[in-house]
Amino acid sequence: MNGNGANGVVSKLRVILPVILRITFCLAMWTMGAMTMTIAQAQTREHRVVQQIPVDRARVENLQRWVDAGHDTWCRNPQFVAAMTILQIAPEFSNYDSELASLTSGNKKVSSNQAIYTFHPIDGQTSYRITLRRFRWQGKAAASRDERIWVPVRSEKITHDLID
Question: Residue 161: pLDDT above 80?
């Protein structure tokens, strides 16, 4: 005999023991109530209201010329444009204490021409997602590619309701 019997048992034990420990740990956490968080999250309903914001090309080109002349240069910053848009569409952000009463997350610049910003009011039940774009046709009025202004094109209100 070459002694492979003992090595076979040890190798099987190395595979099975972590699985047994993982199951035991999960059962213990569930028994103590630590796993109720995931159950509560699974019992929420999500409602989405999407609004496409119409883009008037003539107005955007006029605004672009206005910004190129040195006025309202904040329109070139996507975060500022998203913040001003949220002030207009969400009643929770109507006062200027929005930085104290909200949290932004999921901010991402999808490409050089598109950015998405998500705002979470302090109540935790509603989120707002603002999508901004810069169009190719803006290049005719803008001095350079990076000088183009950001335009809000879509707003999304996401409400989370708990199921009783």
Answer: no
Q: Biggest alpha carbon distance in the chain? A: 91
**What amino acid occupies position 162?**
L
- The amino acid that residue 59 corresponds to is R
Distance between CA 157 and CA 89 in Å, rounded?
Answer: 10
Amino acid residing at 127: S
Q: b/e map of 103-133 (b: 16 or more CB within 10 Å)?
A: ebeeeeeeeeeebbbbbbbeeeeebbbbbbb
Parallel, antiparallel or unpaired: strands 114-121 and 126-133: antiparallel
How high is the pLDDT of residue 94?
A: 66
- Residue 37, pLDDT > 50, answer no
Domain residues of the chain, as ranges? 4-38, 45-162
Q: What is the pLDDT of residue 100?
A: 41
As a whole number, mean pLDDT of residues 73-94 equals: 85
Phi/psi-derived region of residue 50, left when phi > 0, alpha when psi is between -120 and 50, beta in every other case: beta
